[in-house]
Write a structure and sequence with these properties.
The chain is globular and about 45 Å long. The protein contains 7 helices and 2 strands; from the N terminus they run E-H-H-H-H-H-H-H-E. It has a domain of 143 residues: Cytochrome c-like domain (Cytochrome Bc1 Complex, Chain D, domain 2, Orthogonal Bundle). Helix content is 26%, strand content 2%.
Length: 207
């Protein structure tokens, strides 16, 4: 995974004055938040076809190099049933990792739907591989108790984490913590510093 000038933006950036706004690029926005701005609620995971989608295209099974698994586009966006291209790269997936907490109902999503079965995370979420179990549990408790928030109120995945954490039992949180904590951390992101980057656009909170 390659990024030019990408950061998490959580907490204070070294060299930045206390209280000074964090850089917008760290959150996927091009303008500062206005008073009262907040995240737009994310739609629950759904396999339903969207307007103007071709059923044959969306349901056609696809493969990636080096994997024997086959998934359709509908499968890939079904966050309650995590796809797993490379099953040998991680421990067996438990219920909470692959499908999420049943108590969330139709909004359930497996931890690995965003953080991936390897825990390395997609571009818009945190890598959680190799974190100490006690630290992982503390972060989930902070999400659950409303103590961990984003520096930009419009960032949608923070409220989603709060919703999921509130629904999880202590046992489910520990299961997730132990799963990701058991995976050895390896480099995943390569940062390239340069004076000129390709032209980018923001769509769906992503560059």
């Amino acid at each position: 995974m390659l990024f030019a000038a990408l950061g998490s933006g959580w907490g204070d950036t070294p060299g930045r004055a206390a209280g000074e706004p964090e850089p917008l690029w760290a959150y996927g926005f091009s303008t500062p938040p206005a008073p009262g701005d907040k995240a737009v609620p994310q739609s629950p995971p759904s396999r339903a076809l969207r307007p103007n989608e071709d059923p044959l295209v969306q349901t056609r099974l696809r493969r990636v190099a080096g994997s024997s698994a086959m998934y359709s586009r509908v499968d890939i966006r079904d966050l309650g049933n995590v796809i797993d291209w490379f099953r040998g790269d991680h421990p067996p997936l438990s219920q909470i990792i692959a499908h999420g907490s049943p108590s969330v109902g139709n909004a359930a999503r497996g931890c690995a739907s965003c953080h991936l079965p390897t825990g390395k995370g997609r571009p818009e979420n945190a890598p959680v591989t190799g974190l100490p179990v006690v630290y992982f549990i503390q972060q989930m408790e902070d999400f659950r108790d409303g103590l961990r928030v984003s520096s930009d109120p419009r960032k949608p995945n923070t409220p989603t984490m709060m919703l999921l954490a509130k629904a999880m039992t202590d046992a489910e949180i520990r299961t997730a913590a132990e799963y990701f904590g058991a995976i050895k951390w390896t480099p995943w992101t390569r940062v390239v510093e340069t004076d000129l980057v390709p032209k980018t656009r923001i769509e769906g909170n992503l560059f």
